[in-house]
Amino acid sequence: MKFFSLLLVLIFVFTACSGKKTAPPAKTDPATSTSKDNASNNKNEDENKPKEKVKLKYLYPLASEYLQVVDDLNGSIVIQKLSEMMNIDFEFIHLTTGQETEQFNLMIASNDLPDMITHDFGVPAYPGGGDKAIADDNYLRLNELVESHAPHFKKLLDNDAELRKTIITDEGNIWGLPMIDKVAQDSFVGPVVRQDWMDELNLKTPVTIDDWYHILTELKNKKNVQIPFIMGSQGLPQNDAFIGAYGVNSSFFQVNNKVKFGPIENGYREYLTEMNKWYNEGLIDKDFPTGNQDAAYMTTGKAATLTGGFWIFEPWEAASEDPNMKLRGVPYPSLKEGEKAHFRQNNLRMRGFHTAITTACKNPERAMEFMDYFYSDEGFVLANYGIEGETFEIVDGKYKFTETVTKNAEGVPMQIAFVKYVYNHGAFLRDWHREDEVFADFALDACDIWENSADADYMMPPLTLTVEEGAEYANIMSDINTYANEMRLKFIMGAESLDKFDDYVKQIESMNIQRAIELQQIALDRYNQK
């Protein structure tokens, strides 16, 4: 008996020490026989159970014009719906218009951080950029949170390599979630003409620089237009229009990933030569460097053409002294008909408004889930159009705003009313077509013309320099930019002969421009390797 007792003890000890656990015998009681199913059901119940209410303090840019519609962003029906859905209370901070930079820098210096911060529209960039904000232990690196709590945002990054490059920093960080366009927006700035005068003079739509010289001369001689073309105060039309026809711009660009500096290229000399001719023949304002009053010049008939945005067409026509005034968009010009310039106003899918989560946030997972919802299919509709039956209806398969938005009780333009009825800016997937009904067809047609008449092949992507590179680059380019800007005006206005262009180039070369080009090349190579 002693032997068998000892044997049983040894067997028990050996079994216990083996680390193997045996499941308890199944009970036959119907109430407890489905223990596995019950555990699964309990898990689903936990997932569906409302989450604990949390509070997020959120610095969100809201200019004074929007504050005539809401007291703060809690007045947005989108925020109200999401607050209820996600059980989040928001405390919004809106910096004082005109004092944003001072107030933001003070917030950073005093380490008085909210939970979330959306940049742009007044809220300045973090000094030194997003990587610096992470290194300073003020902003969270969001890569891991995106992986675990932002499936919709992650899907966007995984499906668009170029979008991913514009969001992830050179150091591999995601420091903020931005506004992303569902598809990249068309060009919204380009050359504009008085089409009624063009028709009156039987002038064809200009597509080359020579065409432009012809129509400007006709407008001056036959319509007695004082300023046929409104030139920018720096001697450059907006968004590299006209200068782009010569295969250069006024700064850095790239051809087949090789960086160049426009103001020392031969195409730049050709542009200056043409603008000098226009200046001498009175086709541009003699006092253009002092600045122009574009709207006043156009609406009074003092000027006939310029580069501008599609949003100016209807307001300027309505304000014009001439009831027959018609503004229309025309192509970005090239040197030869059938060719395309490689510069224009260009838009990426990533549109800024980065929203960061700070290290002060005690519930970063909930903050991430809030942002990620706006990249989902449901969140896309809510953010862009609001609530069906209240702010939009579906007509012929398309979203259409109701009069609640278009003829809002606040009596403000629709784009301002957006702050209350849809999501205006921040981290979300935007449908830029939602604003189409605000504008006339001929204004929207201009965007198509500008988009298709030129490409952006020579334009630089959004690059970042390291702190050390940035300091060296700024030191070089400060003097070069000042000198190049001064000389551009002198060349156009004839204060300096274009025979001196080679001397001008040598001067810029002596100011270490090649090192600046090298730094830009390093940054471009780094971007392409992401």
Query: Which sequence of strands runs across the widest sheet?
Result: 2-1-3-11
Q: How many alpha or pi helices?
A: 21
Average residue-wise pLDDT: 91
Q: Globular, elongated, flat, extended or rod-shaped: what is the shape? A: globular
Measured between the Cα atoms of the first and last residue, the distance is 76 Å
Question: CATH superfamily name of the largest domain?
Answer: Periplasmic binding protein-like II
* Helix fraction by DSSP (H/I, runs of at least 4): 40-55%
Q: What's the CATH first level of the largest domain?
A: Alpha Beta
Biggest β-sheet, characterized? 4 strands, mixed
What is the total tally of β strands? 14
Quaternary structure? single chain
CATH fold call of the largest domain: D-Maltodextrin-Binding Protein, domain 2
| CATH architecture assignment name of the largest domain | 3-Layer(aba) Sandwich
Query: Could you name the ranges where pLDDT drops below 50 across 5 or more consecutive residues?
Result: 1-46
Cα radius of gyration in angstroms? 30 Å
Structural class: alpha/beta
Task: Provide the number of structural domains.
Answer: 2
Strand content: 5-15%
What's the gist of this structure?
The chain has helices at 2-17, 35-48, 77-86, 100-109, 130-135, 143-149, 151-159, 161-167, 195-200, 209-223, 266-280, 294-299, 313-319, 364-373, 377-385, 403-406, 414-421, 441-453, 467-493, 501-510, 513-528, and strands spanning 54-59, 88-93, 116-118, 180-181, 189-194, 227-229, 252-255, 258-261, 303-309, 327-329, 355-357, 392-395, 398-401, 429-430. It is of the alpha/beta class and 530 residues long.
